[in-house]
Amino acid sequence: MYEVDFAYPARPNVIIFKGFSITIDAGKSTAFVGQSGSGKSTIIGLIERFYDPLSGVIKIDGRDIRSYHLKSLRNQIALVSQEPTLFSGTIRENIAYGVLASEEAANVHSFISALKDGYDTWCGDKGLQLSRGQKQRITIARALLKNPGVVSLDKATSALDSQSEKLVQEALERVMVGRTSVVVAHRLSTIQNCDTIVVLDKGK
């Protein structure tokens, strides 16, 4: 990110970033911490192109992300957010017939195998029959199918209890190995193994 200016369209007078620049090292993990409103999640939104900056440039592998087809860009990025979303269907359908390697990396295979119907277990509306931690691990397995070069974690464990957090965190650390990872978190346990920790304060 270089000399990025940004404000949300709904609040154009509230400047989030003004001349903000940062380099996120390829193949490394970079964590962003700071108070609410400091711009942490905005960075992920800009990388995903949910929004474009008012000025400045954001590059991946030296290429302006605006030059990518949007679908192509997002296929390179796996986003795991605070609220895992599953559709009504079986676990198998939610993971989209993924290979076993992705399910094992996501710490999901053992608990699915223990279910009465295994991968054919019906998740119900938005996966309501599963715990939040189980849903999050299925979301991670689904993200792995793309074999993404970039992993974005937006408060991915913040709503989990300590036991679920441990399992999900182990899964996330496997996912992050060798990949460029952008981590937004409130809990120290989520970021303690990151290569770089950036403290944001009012967009700086």
Automatic annotation (TrEMBL):
The keyword DNA-binding belongs to this UniProt entry's keyword annotation: no
A GO molecular-function annotation: ATPase-coupled transmembrane transporter activity
Residue span(s) of domain ABC transporter: 1-204
Keywords of the record: ATP-binding, Glycoprotein, Membrane, Nucleotide-binding, Repeat, Transmembrane, Transmembrane helix, Transport
InterPro entries with a match to the protein in the record: AAA+_ATPase, ABC_transporter-like_ATP-bd, P-loop_NTPase, Type_1_exporter
Entry-linked PANTHER family: ABC TRANSPORTER B FAMILY MEMBER 15, ATP-BINDING CASSETTE SUB-FAMILY B
The protein's name: ABC transporter domain-containing protein
Organism: Solanum commersonii
